[in-house]
Amino acid sequence: MDAIERRLTELGYALPEPFRFPKPNRTGCVRVGSVLFISGHGRNLPALPGVRASGRLGADMSIEEGYATARATALSILSSVKMEIGSLDRVRRVVRLFGMVKVAAGFDHMPEVIDGASDLMFDLFGPERGRHARSAVGMFELPHGIAVEINGEMEVEV
Questions:
Q1: What are the Cα distances from residue 62, in Å, to 67, 87, 114?
Q2: Can you tell me the mean pLDDT for 55-72?
Q3: In this structure, how many other beta carbons lie within 10 angstroms of the beta carbon of residue 111?
C-alpha cells in the first residue's frame, strides 16, 4: 500500500472499484504529458453514511448529504486515477476540480457541497499538493439522475 492510500485509511476511507464507463469511446482518465484529465464521475459511488447518488439539493437532499456524496465522488475519481497511473503517490498536484450539483430553484450552496471533494483532496494530499483551483455550479439536471458530478485535472509523475 502506498503512502497516500495509507493516509486514506487513516482518514477512514478505502478506494472503491473503479467505475467502468459504459461505452468504449470514453474512459475515466486521459494522460497528456504530466497532466491527467479526469472524466466526470458521479455514478456507482461507494456506500458511505449520508451518500445519496441521486436527488436534488435544496429539495430532497441536504447540504450534508451533498457533501458526503461529493466526498464519495472524489473517492471514485481517486480509484480511476490509481487505475490509470498505478499509484496515488505519483500525483504531484490536484490542479482543478469542476463540480456540478443538481439543484432546486433558489439553492445556492454548491460550494459547500463540492467542499466534500475539495476537503478530501486537501486532507489526503496536504496543502502543497491538495490545494486546487475549483468551480462549483448548479445544474437543473445531471446524467442518469445523479446529484453530483465532478471532473478535473491532476499533475502526475511521467
A1: 9, 34, 13
A2: 97
A3: 14
